[in-house]
Specification:
3-stranded antiparallel beta sheet; elongated; mainly alpha
Length: 202
């Protein structure tokens, strides 16, 4: 691997390109201590030293990120890649975070479902978790813990919040409410049934 460019980046760091592609970031002091220069062919020893250095920094960066906000493994990998950490350093950081129980997609999915099910439908929650890179089996597992009765109760509360007096609305308003909650991922049949139920005299 040939160092084809050492260019100023930001935050006092320099972008190191290997074989014409940006590969990782280093501080000037690290470049000097490793005696890196443009045109240099990296030896196995230098590659090992670089990997140890970048893995250590990636682990530190991971702890900082997870201290600020809970992330999925996919989200963490994306953030580390954006910081130009090589794949090997990202793998090491992710493994360390998992071993320390700082990173756990199963726990993340379960907590996400508990938090979001108070105001969102199961379908929307599933879509959001997939977008966050959570494996389908973990989503299913988390969803199994949230019963259908719970979703029905959530929908009831949301309906009453949006329409405190369902018995007083006309067909046009009902259709508007149906479209609104269908767009939120709730089943049309559930919306209609609950509207009829809470509109009926007790």
């Amino acid at each position: 691997m040939i160092i084809t460019e050492i260019a100023a980046y930001k935050g006092g760091k320099f972008s190191i390109s290997l074989n014409g592609e940006p590969a990782f970031l280093l501080y000037s002091s690290e470049i000097k201590s490793l005696r890196l220069k443009e045109g240099m062919d990296l030896s196995p020893d230098k590659r090992m030293s670089l990997l140890e250095l970048l893995s250590k920094r990636a682990k530190k960066r991971t702890l900082h990120l997870l201290d600020r906000k809970d992330l999925t493994e996919a989200e963490l990998r994306k953030k580390l890649a954006q910081d130009l950490y090589p794949d090997e350093a990202v793998d090491a950081a992710v493994s360390a975070a998992k071993a320390g129980r700082f990173l756990d997609d199963r726990r993340y999915a379960a907590q996400y479902v508990r938090d979001k099910s108070l105001r969102k439908s199961r379908r929307i929650i599933e879509i959001e978790l997939k977008q966050k890179g959570i494996a389908e089996e973990l989503i299913e597992e988390a969803m199994e813990e949230a019963s259908e009765d719970n979703e029905r109760e959530v929908l009831r509360k949301l309906l009453l919040k949006k329409c405190p007096d369902p018995a007083s609305i006309d067909l046009k308003e009902k259709q508007k409410i149906l479209r609104y909650f269908s767009g939120k991922g709730f089943q049309s049949s559930d919306i209609i049934n609950l509207l009829d139920e809470i509109s009926s005299p007790q």
